[in-house]
Amino acid sequence: MTLQVESIALREIRLPLREPFRISSGVCTERRIALLELADAGGARAWSECVAGEEPNYSSETIDTAWHALREWLSPRVLGRRIDGPQAVHEVLERDIAGHNMAKAAIEMGCWALDAERREIPLARALGGTRDRVPTGISIGIQESPDALVTRARRALAGGYRKIKVKIQPGADLEYLGAVRDALGSDVTLMADANSAYRLADADHLARLDAFGLLMVEQPLGRDDLVRHAQLQKRLKTPICLDESITGVDRCEDMIALGAGRIVNIKPGRVGGFTASKRIHDLCMAAGIPVWCGGMLESGIGRAHNVALASLPNFSLPGDLSPSARYWERDIVNPEWTMDRDGLVAVPLDRPGIGVTPDLDRIDDLTVRREVLSGRTGVRR
Ligand code: OSB
Ligand code: MG
Question: Which of 96, 123, 207, 341 is in the most buried spot, having the most CB atoms within 10 Å?
Answer without folding.
Answer: 123
